[in-house]
Amino acid sequence: MANQQTQALTEAVFYILLSLKEPLHGYGIMQNVEMMSNGRVKLAAGTLYGAINTMLDKEWITSVNEEKNSRKKEYQITEIGLLMVNNEIKRLNELLENAQKFTGGKIK
Predict the structure, then answer these.
(1) What is the pLDDT of residues 20-76, one digit of tens each?
(2) Exposure winner among 1, 21, 30, 85, fewest CB in 10 A?
């Protein structure tokens, strides 16, 4: 677990985790990620479901509504996933602060 907490997240995983504050199905995640990134990040189904399976294994997300008669599984972030997001935000802030120091606050 200690190694997990300091692990840098890929951009796709970061956006997927941000999308799952509320339960959401795969297609909804794809749409949400594209919207949050202003169209820059477009997840293919294989990328999305590969990431979902990995995050399920790591318990960063959980599958909800499995008992319903729905073909669409929904997923939601867990406490561990929220910790990962918060750690990534701290890491990104550190990167930005160091870049600003390096450039004298003039990022080009």
Answers:
(1) 999 999 999 999 999 999 999 999 999 999 999 999 999 999 999 765 566 789 999
(2) 1
The upper half-sphere exposure of residue 55, i.e. CA atoms within 13 Å in the direction of its Cβ, equals 31
Number of Cβ atoms within 10 Å of the Cβ of 29: 23
Residue length of the chain:
108
Query: 79: which 2 tokens?
Result: 């406490």
Q: Residue 4, Cα to own-chain centre: how many angstroms? A: 14
Six-digit token string for 69: 């008669």
Q: Please report, for the chain, the start and end positions of each structural domain, with discontinuous segments joined by +.
A: 9-102
Q: Look up tokens 């799952």; give the residue.
A: 20
CATH annotation of 9-102: 1.10.10.10
Bridge partners of residue 85, in order along the sequence: none
Tell me how far apart the alpha carbons of residues 75 and 48 are, in angstroms, rounded to a whole number: 12
In this prediction the pTM is 0.85
